[in-house]
Design a protein that fits this description.
The complex is a heterodimer. By secondary structure, chain A is of the alpha+beta class. Chain A contains 11 helices and 12 strands. Chain A is about 50% helix and about 15% strand. The longest helix of chain A has 29 residues, at about 45-75. The relative contact order of chain A is 0.09. Helices cover about 20% and strands about 35% of the residues of chain B. Chain B has helices at about 5-30, 125; strands at about 50-55, 60-65, 70-80, 85-95, 105-110, 110-120, 130-135, 140-145. In chain B, strand 1 (about 50-55) and strand 2 (about 60-65) form a beta hairpin. Chain B is elongated, with a radius of gyration of 25 Å. The chains are: A alpha+beta, B alpha+beta. At the A-B interface, helix 9, helix 10 and helix 11 of A face helix 1 of B.
Amino acid sequence: MSASYSAVGWNRQKKNYDWFIFGFCLLYLSAFIGFMAISNPDYTFETALIRSTATLALLLLHAILCIGPLCRLNKKFLPLLYNRRHLGVTMFTIALVHGSFSIFQFHSLGNANPFVSLFSSNTQFGSLSQFPFQSLGFFALVIFFLMAITSHDFWLHNLSPRVWKTLHMLVYLAYLLIVLHVMLGAIQYETNPIFISILSAGSATLIALHLLAGSKEIRKDNIEYPLQKEGFVYVCETQEIAQNRAKIFCLGQERIAVYRFENKLFAVHNVCKHQGGPLGEGKILDGCITCPWHGYQYLPGNGQSPPPFTEKVSTYDVRIENTKVWLNPKPYAEGTERPGAILNS
Amino acid sequence: MIKQLRKRHFQIWIVLLVLLPASIVMARLVTPKIPIDQLLQPSAYPAYPTIIKTITKDNYSVHLRKANDSSFQLEWINKKILIVPSAAVYKLPAGSNDTKNGVLIGRIEGRGVYRFAVDTSFRPDRFSSYRLFLYDFIHQQVIDTIKF
């Protein structure tokens, strides 16, 4: 958590995750370059490297963009989300190798500055088949660069979550630029239908996953709770909430997580202060509500992170009548202590 | 994630649902059926039947060929890709190093075979008074000189 700037806190899971990514990338690049050397001995090593890094970066980008919706659809994918930014930085590094070698091979042997050459050697912006596709890849790489250098929590806190999130949502624009970069570049020359089929399948999978997860969330947001009295809304029965777990209710514009802990019910705002993770999908560990995304923690009674951390979320009043759980959607100031509702044993 | 942000994500993917397939289909429609030949030189002409002179170097070999009607052809075979972007072949009088005094034969690009029709000054008995210059005209430097 974020009491102050600190380097990446390595733990066993992060190390395993990164070793797996490293091993996979190495294996992929070796296999691709080896296969090209055997099947097309005329190609130079630089060409093999440009192509292998291009396909690997594209594959990783698809994997990264799949993780979010997969986690919304099935909690089993949550461990992938934990270190998604490591995967993102890896993808950027590989894309950077691709971009650097491409600029070196195609633009650095003349007497013009390679970056001037990149934007001036082909100016057929009016033609689709001859479009200067390299510039599209360049702009996508700039977005990935900005995302990679701001991926540490230090930047999340210094830029503010709103700015940081807006910046990182540019990944969707970058993805569109990459699809165009491939379609107007490599696909114009490599006319084998297998390439366009793979790219189309990747895009279709992403679109389907995101729309499926999005519509599932919208359905959750649209559930109505008609039974109301004295500012409280009837949301569920007590037995529907498991010990150390929560149920999430969307009342008005906000989602509220109602947790069951030590024979009491507590309600906190569902949005984690770190990256907006769903607190209600986590569980209570060591007496703290633990965000399923990156492990940020909050005390159920007051919504405060345990010292020395400073994050706070809003708290809410809960009431129990017989077995019915009533929730007041009016939030208290972030970090306000609430007694919780005692369950009848 | 707050409700507004969830809605924004969903809206973005609705837009991408339209843009991504449209981009793919549009780019596919304009894909040339035959890959575009980016070489500045046309494809090599058929080789003349008789080789009358040969020069072999590490990176390329050069043949002077003759047809039955006594016309001549310069055949240039690149064994390795040239590392300069702008190699041109000139015929220069012996003793001159200035391409302004020479005749441009043609341009050499990547790996491959290049054949250029040449005049009768390439007759073996006359060519001793000429040399071939492989010249990088962007960096203005002589890459190699060939004397048959």
